[in-house]
Amino acid sequence: MRWLLTAAALLFLGLFLFVPLxxxxxxxxxxxxxxxxxxxxxxxxxxxxxxxxLAAGIAVPLNMVFGVAAAWxxxxxxxxxxxxxxxxxxxxxxxxxxxSGLIYVLLFGLQGLLGPWLIAHGIRIIxxxxxxxxxxxxxxxxxxxxxxxxxxxxxxxxxxxxxxTLGASGWQTFCKVTLxxxxxxxxxxxxxxxxxxxxxxGAVSVVSGHIRGLTDTVPLHIEILYNDYQFVAAFxxxxxxxxxxxxxxxxxxxxxxxxxxxxxxxxxxxxxxxx
Amino acid sequence: xSISVRNITKKFGRFTALKNVDLEIPDGQLVALLGPSGxxxxxxxxxxxxxxxxxxGTIEFDGQDxxxxxxxxxxxxFVFQHYALFRHLTVFENIAFGLRVRxxxxxxxxxxxxxxxxxxxxxxxxENQSGRYPSQLSGGQRQRVALARALAxxxxxxxxxxPFGALDAKVRMxxxxxxxxxxxxxxxxxxxxxxxxxxxLEVSDRVAVMNQGRIEQFDSPDEVYDHPAxxxxxxxxxxxxxxxxxxxxxxxxxxxxxxxxxxxAGGAADSSVGYVRPHEMQLKRERNGDKSAVEATxxxxxxxxxxxRVELRRQxxxxxxxxxIPRAVLQELALKPGxxxxxxxxxxxxxxxxxxx
Lengths: 275, 357
Known about the structure:
The structure holds two protein chains of two kinds. Chain A is an all-alpha fold. Chain A contains 14 helices and no strands. Chain B is elongated. Chain B is built from ten helices and 18 strands. The interface of A and B includes residues 164, 180 and 270 of A.
């Protein structure tokens, strides 16, 4: 029975995870390594990679700051409207990315609420880089806050209060007590946030306008290549995202192993002392 | 540093945690805030620390009004029930924390910090544990580190919230004696919260007994135990026998004490309640004309340690009473369950018309 279940799980995993992953790399390298590398010399591809890095480079740090602040406020303080704030943080998870994108179009688009004013002032958001960055920020903002919140809530207020009575300022307390206690959760949240920021398709697709070399991110560029029947090139670029996913998994495992190690060491140390 | 608590009131929503509390803690004393859970003792401690703020009233340190100062300005040492050590820092770094976070101008040099921390490590007898993490220490060790950490910043007052509450009985006992010794050496004005009357009576110079957001009595441990100010205090400081009804005279020494059943043809004394501690009960086989003894049936005998605990049922009212008598006396009496004895209170405390709360 055990073997049967294990086999079923492995088969499932193989069919839906490893086979597609294999196909990506197989197709990407079908015409040889030279052709594979050539794909990345294409100016449009380079532009797409650059834009993706830019969007993630802005969205991830912003969401890190926002996530830490939100988790801290929610975890440490009691205030009116806390429940609403938690719901709002979860909103990007519950709303389809396409809808998120459309919201921005409705807000900033030509026919949108702020559209005429923006055009009058020569500011382009939709079908331009700012729209892509905004959409990325929106879609990825729950990750850090969601990772940190349970951690911060579980740890309570005692250590912070101790720091305050010892004369530490609010900022010192945050940097020297709160942050070190949640560093692994924070790192994990940032990794997830980054993976999503680089891989986001739906919301970005709506606001991008698909202008090659200008408003294409990596996922959008893959779609364009694929639709142009440039399968090998499409898969070559896709292999980049696949690599990113694998790297995320590796880093995630290391982080989990590290924090687990720390916990185990502490537990062992405690036992030694007690016996 | 003396602490003056003036007319402090604190509400949490609809719950009133403290009602017009006044408390004067003289310089250099070790004071216990004693009471059942929910009586407001921890809230009062946190208000003195500046971790909580009162709705009304003032707090003064040495006559200086510090009501509006926050915790970090008050320079208090606070020890938490669950230690609240910084788990990512070593014992050394935990103790040094308060010195390291000072503004550069007031911060001691590295050597000074090291000297100070080692001095404190010696004081708490953990000199060779400085590189360990809190999770590698036992509960008693952790609480000592927490104490050293609080003392490192040379606080004006030391506040301890149920400092031994999370420890097992033996460690508790050792640690509270150690705290008393420490206080005799350091002489810093200290306030500690506890729900353990034994702990409060043993360790402190003065005890504030609290109940439902008020201080019922603030006196020396002897005074609180021997002359409790209210039924609550008697009841809270150890087990007690309650005698309802006619008590002719509480003057036990003159031997004119007389106890009757409630509703008995009595005088004005009918409404009074008398409190007698179990060890202040005398058991006799014969009444010998003593009107102050009540007739009771032995319902149980528990022998543990040098003192035997005898459970009795009054024959007139059916109320159960307890007596604690030396084992030798018990052997002499040769009591057995079901037998009749005469129980005589040797000392009785009365609070006219009041009921224990």
